[in-house]
Amino acid sequence: MSESSFQFIPPPGAWPGRMPQPKVVAFGGGHGLYATLQALRHVTTNLTAVVTVADDGGSSGRLRREMDLIPPGDLRMACAALCDESENGFTWRDILQFRFATTGELNGHSLGNLLIAGLWQILDDPVVGLDWLMQLLGAKGRVLPLSRVPMEIAAEIESDGVLNTVKGQSRIAKTPGLIRSIQLNPPDAPVTPEVLAAVAAADWIVLGPGSWFTSVLPHLLLTPLRRALSESTACKAVVLNLSRQRGETQDLPLPDHLRVLNDYAPDLGLNIVIGDPGAVEDIDGLARVAESMHCEVMLRQLSIGDGTARHDSLRLAAAFRDAMSGHWGDLAPLTELDNH
């Protein structure tokens, strides 16, 4: 894949010398998608976040069981990530993320989850409810659920030579062993039409980082979306994790993350893999897998640098910007990122 494959052609009327804001669709869930969105919001406002709806633990799981709705937690985090970096935006971000600590039934519930659940009951549509929430927050971009139907993830996990079926995202994350396969129930859950429309219009599609089997790969399990991603002419990027996740991927090296992704979507047409060299134990192995998938590897320092496995939003934003503009040399200064 040549560098020219990653260069945008400015549309008519674009300011000379400035890269137009690309239409980006980011897939994931939880803290991984939060990191991606915090970075991408520095690069573009034409941003759509697509979130898995299989979470069954914590506040989301309780609301899901009590009210028969899609889990709001990861959707809430995506909305929080797109809040404006101002006093008003920071305040709304804190409101969404506030969690009650009581001795009663509210204990552990997120205020943002309750707000979203209330909007859904009033408006009777999760997409409309999330659009209203984003307007209320003054947030940039759009947040969409993968489906309007709550889903369950089931995994075949091998431990000590024995293969067991584990159901539920929260249980899968805590079950030791090697995940051999995953599936969604219902397997034919309808993809949110707005998601398919966003993919069709996208300039860039981003997968990861995040819980590989329960946040990243589920998007590839629904046939209409997998087909739409494969047929899309957008450039497609995968952002690798900074560490293996205890339980889910503790025995899965980063090159195998790509192999598994390719197993589930061999026609995806991935263009670029973005990773941190400090997190890649086998850089040559990663390069070989990427070459077999006909995609490039971009290695940049992406971690926050405090010893934790967290992406730095500005470093990741710079990597996205370099990929999108075709620059593969040293990272450019970050001072103008917010002015794009």
Automatic annotation (TrEMBL):
Keyword Nuclease: no
Pfam families: CofD
InterPro entries: CofD (IPR002882), CofD-like_dom_sf (IPR038136), Gluconeogen_factor (IPR010119)
Subcellular localization, as worded in the UniProt entry: Cytoplasm
GO CC annotation, single: cytoplasm
Biological process according to GO: regulation of cell shape
Gene3D superfamilies registered for this protein in UniProt: CofD-like domains
Keyword Cytoplasm: yes
A single MF term (Gene Ontology): LPPG:FO 2-phospho-L-lactate transferase activity
Domain of life of the organism encoding this protein: Bacteria
Keywords, ordered alphabetically: Cytoplasm
CDD domains named in the record: YvcK_like
Family, similarity comment: Belongs to the gluconeogenesis factor family.
Protein's job: Required for morphogenesis under gluconeogenic growth conditions.
Protein name, entry field: Putative gluconeogenesis factor
Organism of this sequence: Mobiluncus mulieris ATCC 35239
